[in-house]
Amino acid sequence: MSDTQLWKVAVDAPLPEALTYSFAEPLRRGQLVNVPLGKRKTKGLVLGPTDQVPEFQVKAIDSIDEEYAPLPDTFVKWLEWLSSYYLHPVGQTVQSAFPPLKKADKQRASKRAPVIPQLEADKLPDLTPEQKTSFEAIAAHKGFSTHLLFGVTGSGKTEVYLRLLDKVLKEGKRGLILVPEISLTPQLIQRFARRFGDKIAALHSQLTDRERTNQWWDVVEGRKSILIGARSALFCPVPDLGLIIVDEEHEPSYKQDEKLKYNGRDAAVMMGKLMNCPVVLGSATPSLETWKNAQEGKYHLHPLKNRVANRSLPDIEVIDLRQQKADDDQQKLIIEKYSHLPYWMSPQLYERMHEVMERGDQSALFLNRRGIAQMVVCPACGHTRECPNCDISLTLHAGSHLVCHYCDYHEQMKKKCPDCKEGELEAVGLGTELLESDLARLFPGKVIARADRDEIQSRADLEDLIARMESGEIDILVGTQMIAKGLDFPKLKLVGLVLADVGFNLPDFRATERSFQLITQMSGRSGRHIKEGESPGLVIIQTFNTEHDSLVFARNHDYEGFANHELNVRGALNYPPVGRLVSFRIQGPHLGKVEETARLLARRAQSLKTQVPQYNLVEVLGPAEAALAKLRGQFRYHLLIKSSQASLVNPFSRQLLGDQEWVPSGIKILIDIDPMNLL
Ligand code: ADP
Ligand code: ZN
Description:
Layout: E1 5-11, E2 19-23, E3 32-37, E4 40-50, E5 59-60, E6 63-64, H1 73-85, H2 90-94, H3 129-139, E7 145-151, H4 157-170, E8 174-178, H5 186-196, E9 200-203, H6 209-220, E10 226-229, E11 241-247, H7 264-275, E12 278-283, H8 288-295, E13 300-304, E14 315-320, H9 329-337, H10 347-358, E15 362-366, E16 375-377, E17 395-397, E18 401-403, E19 410-412, E20 426-428, H11 432-442, E21 448-451, H12 459-470, E22 476-479, E23 492-497, H13 501-504, H14 511-523, E24 538-543, H15 549-554, H16 559-572, E25 580-588, H17 591-611, E26 618-631, E27 634-643, H18 646-657, E28 668-673
Parallel strand pairs: 2-5, 7-12, 7-13, 8-10, 8-11, 9-10, 11-12, 14-24, 15-22, 15-23, 21-22, 23-24
Antiparallel strand pairs: 1-2, 1-4, 3-4, 3-6, 16-20, 17-18, 18-19, 25-27, 25-28, 26-27
Helix pairs in contact: 1-7, 3-4, 17-18
Bound molecules: adenosine-5'-diphosphate and zinc ion.
């Protein structure tokens, strides 16, 4: 026996487990090392010593990477949790914890964000009574605890974050704030920088690798004590972490859709648990996952029910787009008067836009375009078709065929509406470009701007748009949901949702929740800066389905009513957050092979169910063609695993995937635990 020890090392390769290496010198868990792998050299993270001698010949670690001190043990635990919970190779998970480049010889000062003068302490606004209560209740916690700051739009959640961070800094600790990438604008960073000056580091997708590396070292070596960033900022090991904040915790963009498919919000809560610090989740429309945890007492609930300065929430008006019957002469005159309007523009919306623009204020129209297939609706009664098994909308194929993208149910589309037996079902399509050109015709001389993924491709585009809205140059803003969030324009007094039904009819069990969030967040943009005595902002929602659950509650600003109702709906079919869900996506360039593998996977799932008795509580749905049936040359099928027993889905999925030796070449199987996107 020599002194040489064996070590588990997570190497940068698609291997499910860490590999065993030898090394003659002492090593520490969390140390980055250089190792041989096959014929190449790669990086690995030491997870700890092992005395299990593998059957094959053990190779030796080449060297320690002296640039990095060992990662803290709690941080390595967090990385191990990510890998095991999301079924992602451990070696590929840990790579994200290091910056892209080598440390600069000298950290250059020139690239730093300009130092912004701090506000004097006495200029801080007095907290509203609700802000004060929430702040004090959260500040009373030192160790791990999760808090939901449930505040209506404009209630001053950010001010509560700032006070909490201030307190954490005074205690000599550090803070981490996660925000959705889209809201990580200079405006937001400035708001934090005005309070904390150059203690702020920021990590987002627009940084160069050099900037990212410098920010990483500034945080890790303690020169910056507050890190604000998009979800990936979690992978920067902040020392002495005293608080984690997740703003807009309901945002689907916290979920990474590729490679390690983690949810930044959930991973933040786990980090708080491992590092024993409080975690604050903030939202006006909490995800049902978070709401359920708050209802069950796992999270502490802190409501902010009012906007600051007694500003009222906007008025929400719901407009019925179903065909108006010309019953009497007066009605006939109205229909006549507005006959020049396109079908998507109601007389009410048209008149309100005129009024707002006459006062020199702004309007914004939203259209949710994520609908990938055309929606099928009865223009007389508003009926749309849903899957009898899955409670999600059926999608139209080849003009006549309706399909469920969860369970593969099929039916022929009937011409006559099966509900009112009067109207004829129609496929409706609409886009932001069409809206823009119709508006230009209806409002000649007005400045119209469009914000969708075609027009706004970079942060600079978005900032340019924000500046033109702030200066009042733009009269009408038209866009997709990308502009529904976080923005704050003083002159914006009217917000219109052109066709709410697009959101209702997405083939996704979260469609109703998404619609509710979108309507509420979008409404929150209207009338944010009204003065005393001024009438509140206005929101107009146009729809064929005025009785849709999301609308009925949103028009009354009733989040709680909505959440409790929707939780019951989810429970009936064991959808999250009541049950747990995993999606397996099968994809490849040959349709036949993809279908065959999808069926093979389903058979494996069924036989696994019969082998293990507890697995009778696991439901297998599909395989079915994904709603996005083909993407970038790859055909896509999916199989869904659902269970009322949360603890079963992870081991079931692990066993179902197995060693993957059974997967034919050319086919990829991508596993998504707690999926957010089922298209
Ligand atoms: P939220 O994040 O809840 O939507 P914000 O934190 O953006 O709300 O606050 C809305 C507006 O109210 C901001 O302009 C903010 O500066 C201001 N504000 C927040 N708290 C107070 C307060 N206690 N007194 C006066 N103004 C406040
Ligand atoms: Zn179905």
